[in-house]
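ARCHIVE CARD
Drawer: 12
Card no.: 0347
Subject: one protein chain, sequence and derived structure
Cross-reference: see card 0346
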Amino acid sequence: MRPRVVNILQRHLLREMLATLAMTVAVFVFVLLLGNVLREILLLLVHRQVSLASVLEAVGLLLPYVAPFALPMGLLTAALLVFGRFAADQELTAARASGLSLTHLVAPLLFLALVLSAVTVLLNAEWAPRSRTAYKALLVRIGLQMGQGILPERQYIHDFKGLVLYIGRIREARLEEVLVWRLDDQGRAEYKLRAEGGRLESAADSGGFRLELTDVVAARRTPEGWVPAGYARTLVYTLEPPASRPARAPKISEMTWRQLLEERRSREHQGIEATPVVVQLHQRVAFGFACFAFCLVGIPLGARLHRRETNVGVAVALVLVAIYFGFLLLANAWDTRPERYPHLLVWLPNFLFQGIGAYLLWRMDHAP
């Protein structure tokens, strides 16, 4: 008799989860799409400067890009809502009084979370970056793409002879976390410069650009590795414009899995640290497993909330999502600091949430 009751409850919870998941994912997809499309295209549609077909095409291209974000957040919110209602309606109390294990009841939901994790990893690896690239191409086609200047952020720049540049952030006219590698005749890094800040200005006399770096720490490559080579308060480079501008390579965050692997091999062959690429590779996989981590922690938290109100579940979900993304933002902020192991930091929220969720499930199963 008990196995039949367990199967009935499992199917009931799975139906509730799927129905709620469809609603929460749809809401998050809508919000994320609105944030992208409204900012760049929708206002032009209102003023009849772009066609409805272009807006619909933009939405279709962005769907694979926002889906990896919407799936984990939607699953977490759904778990909190479903098990908040399950506990508030005393169904959980009745199940425990009958000697049923919560871990056994939620096994199909955890399997669903693993499936969604695999889907999210695939989206992050190939489809999301491809759709983002196609979306930007659409913006160019309809004349909306704003130029990102001669030096885009978070991208290896090799347009200038003898130099490879990488800029962590661009704040208006100020550059932050600037890395410069000087190459030898064989195209390998000979000197590495790390600057806390900088500024790029046009050099009217030469037709090129003047790159002024501040708080510069230099290192020289030796057979034993990198050794300190001095410090400069200010250092100025004159960048000659390339004879012909090649097509701009995609940002690291917009590269597919294969492109990231090729980028890493290329930088390592040049003797250039590829930490930003390594961080991105780990993040693509780690964020995929956020589905499982969110589901595992959301189920016992929802049951402990004992609340039917949707706003409570959504509020808790947003707090947990903010904590998770805080780790990712910190890892990306440290992507030029390999000594801080930012590629491992992206895994920490998964292990943290999974550990807390497993402990809470165990406590609920063994509570008197």
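Annotation on reverse: Residues 2-144+282-366 form one domain. Residues 41 and 47 are 10 Å apart (CA to CA).
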